[in-house]
Amino acid sequence: MANPHTTLQPTRVVSVGLNPVSFADVVAVARDDAAVTLSDEAMAAVSASRVRIEALAEDPTPVYGVSTGFGALATRHIPPQLRTQLQRSLIRSHAAGSGEEVEREVVRAMMLLRLSTLASGRTGVRPEVLQAYADLLTEGLTPVVYEYGSLGCSGDLAPLAHVALALIGEGNVRTRDGALRPAAEALAAHGLSPVVLAEKEGLALINGTDGMLGQLVLALTDLDALLRLADIAAAMSVEGLLGTERVFAADLQALRPHPGQAAAAANMTKLLADSAIVASHKTDNCTVVQDAYSLRCAPQVAGAARDTVEHALQVAQRELASAIDNPVVTLDGRVESNGNFHGAPVAYVLDFLAIVVADLASISERRTDRFLDPARNHGLNAFLADDPGVDSGHMIAQYTQAGIVSELKRLATPASVDSIPSSAMQEDHVSMGWSAARKLRRAIDGLTRVLAVEVLTAARALQLRAPLTPAPATAAVVATVREQVAGPGTDRYLSPEIAAVVDLARSGALVAAAESVTGALS
């Protein structure tokens, strides 16, 4: 995961237009500080739809979001002289978040996604509102958004309102180097002016699923690497625990044709190719009939995880292609109320992924535990200790894993099954998608740590199998670990060693080491 603040200068420009932004665009803006421009086609579409809103603003018939109050207060018609105040009041009142600051990358992802919807021409805002959003992103000014405030319905209201607050020159922002400054001061320092919002614009800035979607996109990006790391860790454990690779054969996987399972098994077969350790027990003297489930069924679990991720990816892609607002300006010029802001589609897959993350971590912890038990580790010292009794080896590293796995199981409890009615029962069913996204981010951090401990433990075990040598691919992973952490020996301060391997896991270095031998893993 990226640092909460960055000193990067923009090295890439993302153009926002009529076509949806891509996963790569979101990551570039969120994590790599890419600058943002707006296409001429998008600005023309925005100008055209604004004409319709301005016509409705002059109509004596009340139109929700244009000339009325909001939510349960939508019954009041607001006269023209109060509408600027209406928009400002909407943003101020809805910027009611609380708790810790939300990570910079999440806020930037959310901003880009809201800007993408604004650029569709379906929200009725003026072009200068889009330009102000793009300028904030390009200048690296990130509004301060707080942990609590979104119910995942009527959009991520409070988080998006805190962004809009900065747009009108209120609230606080963090600069590119992480300094906290009042928004008005930061805007002035960068040659920017606050926006005075007109009819419909306040609502358009806050009525979307962009917060939960941005976190889904970032989570899927992280899981792409973590799934490959899970296969690497599992292969190292199978090898170190004298397991067999025969169960990963393609014809056996084809008997149950789940695509993710086939991909995971193929990865493990590649990773274990040419292992002298695996070859050493392919003899008639081997008395092991079947490996434990945590070894033998690794592709089935990791494969099911992949297939769930694939479903979540499809949902995310559909959501990226969506223009979510209420009311919305249709292609034929109507301004219609709708329920597209409800976060259920995104909330469900965020919860599905939290279940996947918890189970991947659970099976990883079980493999680590097998290494530490002399009754199950096939000839290695208890806890992989140098001198058991004097040394404790990796005993407490497994405790750390177990503590994380226990928390991941709690985080796997779905947020989307909960609903607390709000807004005087007008908003009587909500998705809690923002909450699902927040707990998934914590879960992905936990999975990264659990897999890192498995890799650290398996690397130690593989070296304790000397003079037998591991497969070239797993040996490359061990060598990468050894660049940061010393090999087997007497007990050392273990926490920094775990932290070092966590950093290797996050950076992609462990996956890159394996793929330097195997080629790209699935």
TrEMBL record:
Catalysed reaction equations from the record: L-histidine = trans-urocanate + NH4(+)
Keyword Lyase recorded: yes
Keywords: Histidine metabolism, Lyase
Cited InterPro entries: Aromatic_Lyase, Fumarase/histidase_N, HutH, L-Aspartase-like, Phe/His_NH3-lyase_AS
Pathway(s): Amino-acid degradation; L-histidine degradation into L-glutamate; N-formimidoyl-L-glutamate from L-histidine: step 1/3
EC number: 4.3.1.3
Gene Ontology biological-process entries: L-histidine catabolic process to glutamate and formamide; L-histidine catabolic process to glutamate and formate
This protein's GO CC annotations: cytoplasm
Main localization of the protein described in the UniProt heading: cytoplasm
Subcellular location: Cytoplasm
GO molecular function: histidine ammonia-lyase activity
CDD domains, sorted: PAL-HAL
Domain of life: Bacteria
One Pfam family, short name: Lyase_aromatic
Annotated signal peptide: none
Class in the EC hierarchy, top level: lyase
Similarity-based family: Belongs to the PAL/histidase family.
Protein name, UniProt field: Histidine ammonia-lyase
Organism for this UniProt entry: Mycobacterium aquaticum
Lineage, uppermost ranks: Bacteria, Bacillati, Actinomycetota, Actinomycetes, Mycobacteriales
